[in-house]
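Help! Submission page says 'invalid entity' but I think these are all valid:
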Amino acid sequence: MTGKKKMLQALKAKGVKYIFGYTGGAIMPIFDEMDKLGDFRFVMSRHEQGAAFMAQGISRASLSTSTPQIGVCMATSGPGAMNLTTGIADAYMDSVPVIAVTGQVATGVIATDAFQESDVVGVMMPICKQTYMPLAAEEVEATVHEAFYVAATGRSGPVLIDIPKDVQDQQLPEDYHFDANNFHPDLPGFFFHPSPEREVMQKAITLINRSQRPVMFCGHGVINSNAGKMLQKFAEKVNIPIAFTFHGLSAVPADHPLSLGMMGMHGTVEANRAIMEADLLISFGMRFDDRVTGKLNEYAQNADVIHVEIDPSEINKNVPTSVAINADVYRTLHVLLGDPMLTFKPRKRWFEKINSYRLLMAEDLQQEIEGSVGDGGKLLMKSIVHQLSELTKGKDLIVPDVGQHQMMAARFYNYQTENSWFASGGAGTMGASLPLAIGVKLARPTERVWSISGDGGFQMNIQELGTIMEQQVDVKILILNNGYLGMVRQWQTLFYDGRYAGTPMQSPDFGSIAQGYGIPYLKIETPEEIVPALQKAIDHQGAIILEFICDPSEVILPMIPAGGGFEDMIIKRPSPTPEEPSATTEQNGEES
Amino acid sequence: MIRRAILTFMLDRPGVLNKVSMLIRKKMYNVDTLTVCSSRVPGISRMTITLREDDEAKVEQIIKQLEKFTEVISAKELDTDHSYWREVAIIQLEVDAAHLESFHGRYNFEVLEKKNEDAYILQVAGSTRQIDSFLDEIGREYIIEIARTGVTAMEK
Ligand SMILES: Cc1ncc(C[n+]2csc(CCOP(=O)(O)OP(=O)(O)O)c2C)c(N)n1
Ligand SMILES: [Mg+2]
């Protein structure tokens, strides 16, 4: 029995079905063994970054199914491992459990700058929840079990196992013994509080009952603890509107009467205004990042804050809390729902006010969506997303990339299926969509998956079309081509006097590319073609690429400028040729 | 700025020290000293970090971030009233015997070596302030070399 065999046995014992990766010298023994054992479906990505995102896709999409799995990606030492980093850093930012296994040079030559040696543990440490390097075959199995435990316990995150080549091949000692069923990692300081404490709950309930203008926040923690239905029940029980973080989307149907839609930089007017005027924020599983709060010292100044969060280091980090509930969202909601003291209030005035905010942009948006084209006659992204939503009744799985189209997808798809929105948020990694969508589809094979990319991001992992071709993954691919790095262009329009530095972009003939990969392709240029093309994608069995020619001057509004407060929210489109710099705000060196 | 001490116990595993120093860099804490030693329990080390920080929330944040490491068993702030903070300094300096004699009884020091008539290697132990005042009084300009351990601390 060898280290490599133990590694694979342990992965199997942990319910792993797919391994995403790319081979090379230092990982060959494990790949060889994997082939011999035949226990896994191996998916070769065309770049290791792709493998990391596919693994994320499995973890994220399967968590709400009856068979949750943790995604595993594998790469060789040096360049292979370095290519994983972007996808791993992304998983870290978005709290996604992923196991990365990398081959390392043999123990005898570690730290000699051997061929393809990189200090992978050193590089991964700040972007992983934990890193391991087993130095003997008998450590391997326990390491894998501990890695899975750490990755998925409490706030999830990626974990690296860097395994030297000689350890992979090493024989286990005769007296080796490991009991996987009774294994508990020896981590005396690593605990988390799944259940809320009684006293803080009482305080929370008092605040909730007293509040005139409460807003509830639905964050990623609601998705991760499968608590969407519970949150909805709670909201209905106490009659409190729900604002969603970017990662909280799809936890509750988007058109629920209590839904305010997304909050933050590109959030809805009603969500952001309501937060501004709230006297109580009840936040479930989120971390008050700067895209959500804007300028901190102006944020929700009159509100008490109840913060339910599994990671204690997030509590009081950015926003001071009145009541801190360090616990799992699902369990907290469970306790809240069972409490007889909670009262329903009509909150007539509060909802009237919120409804008036809902109307502020509604008409403009409705007009744009119905018109479907911008001033130059090219398609509007919001209209495409809206029509996709109508056609699929909001039930499909949506995997956007990063940019304007992503925010359009966040805002204008009417999410009905719990856990149906998979996006790179904290890191905002362009190129995530295509490989992420592959993982999502493999985890939820009976549901329809749409990968929606911009022309920029699509070309960042375009090579994964090869994976789609080889594995015959049925992903519907939409390219919203506006000829620009649109989101940055929007910032240039608003804050850089319309100088488009480094954002116009020439694209290849996507039709020829599609043809090269044997994937059907359609180009859509007029509003009339949108629905028939989408319908074609639905009817087609297998992957298909639809390229939409979009208006580069479309902007996603409202927008709270980076570093600005909610008062600075821009809700009107700037005139096409601004004589004056149209909007100004403090620039604090933030990136889009 | 207020000087703080954080006492933390952690598993003696590879990379833990690295993680702590990365945390300090990432969060840009103003660390004065950091000492690590083994504890009473095999496999568990104790670390004392002293830093300057006025903002309570920031101190709370570093403690929470430390506790988040899977290897860290506990982390807490020690306040000066309820704990002992001590360090040791080894000093090589020029001083004559008579002057040195005047420090006896007032400071806790020991002559490790007399190099010649007016050069000594001394060991001084005590609180940071005691050591600082010893150095001030004896004259910092006469110091040839100095090594300080940094603070280690224990609750009363
Ligand atoms: C890897 C990476 N590089 C750069 C950025 C900065 N960035 C954010 S959005 C964006 C533009 C995206 O353009 P495109 O993919 O065409 O989408 P659009 O905004 O036009 O819809 C850029 C460059 C990023 N988020 N990720
Ligand atoms: Mg674009």
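Support: the input was valid. A stray whitespace character was the problem, and the output above is from the cleaned input. The first helix of chain A runs from residue 3 to 13.
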